[in-house]
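Extended Data, panel c. Modelled sequence:
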Amino acid sequence: MKKFFTLLIVLVLFAAGCNTVKEVQADVAPVDPVENILRTMTLEEKVGQMMMVGFYGTEINDDVIYSLNAFHFGGIIFFDRNLENVAQSKKLANDISAAANQKLPLLFAIDEEGGRVARGRAFLEVAPSQEEIGLSGDPELAKYWARHNATILRSIGMNINLAPVADVGSRDTRSFGDNAQTVANFVDAAANGYESENFLYTLKHFPGIGKSKIDPHKEVSSVEVDKATLDAEDLPPFKQILRGHDHSNFMIMVGHLKYDALDPVNSASLSPAVMTGLLRNELGFQGVVITDDLEMGAIKNHVDLATLGVKMVLAGGDVALVCHNYESQQVVYNGILEAVKRGEISEERINESVRRIIRLKAHL
């Protein structure tokens, strides 16, 4: 861990154009801290960084310690099942950090959107729903509540929020509105709020699930509109953030819907056309792509767990989210690892994802 932070200091100094570092390095090749960290990591550690997992309980236990050190999981997602109060939540996060023998700090993530999707509401002040904020007509309100979320989440040991929702027109109060530009403006303000507090955040659910007719927790559904409609009605919030923000400050979560105009076969979270063709190549996203929970019915009902992680990586994703079951988490991890060992996934492809994850974690 000390080596990681030392290298990050070098990274920050280079980014800032530090004259002292420039003078010291004048006669030698520039140091690339990301590559230096990457070279110290085993394949098993790299694959572990590409997973975010959940667990049960309000105290650290043997299962959590074993998973962190046997599978090197790079992120933990917290739910109400893990949270009792501020002190307990912060202690749990600190205990997990101390137990993780890893070269990189852990991501501690949570869904704190506001409204009905918020954790710790028994002891934290919950923000209004995004719909309510959008109805105010004032994007500065989105910035205010994003700063609020960053503050309360940091107080319980979290370092990344799985919000804001960038979907247009979802019917469950989770969207800022029905108009694409309005939603884009509110999401942009929320992004500014998180960044003003130096807190990581996540745009979801790419490329937009506002047109979904079925709950993806239960089953998959298709968005049957053409590409021009997606461009005009669903993608503007994502495009606006990608144009105006440092891509290492946030993740993009890809949902499990199918988009017939992009890929009629694969869910977005397993689609090369969506994650690589659209998000990476067309829109130019250089940051971390995370899937929605791979234990949702929309995805696990149709693809076996051992294959899910492999398809996610081959499609261009960086982090597989597996929220609930220990066995499922290990199956996904082993599926990716074995695919690399047998040559189905190249180690350089793994390295591409881990470089993006290191840059994200540099903000921690």
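Confidence is low (pLDDT under 50) at residues 12-26. This feature is highlighted in the accompanying rendering.
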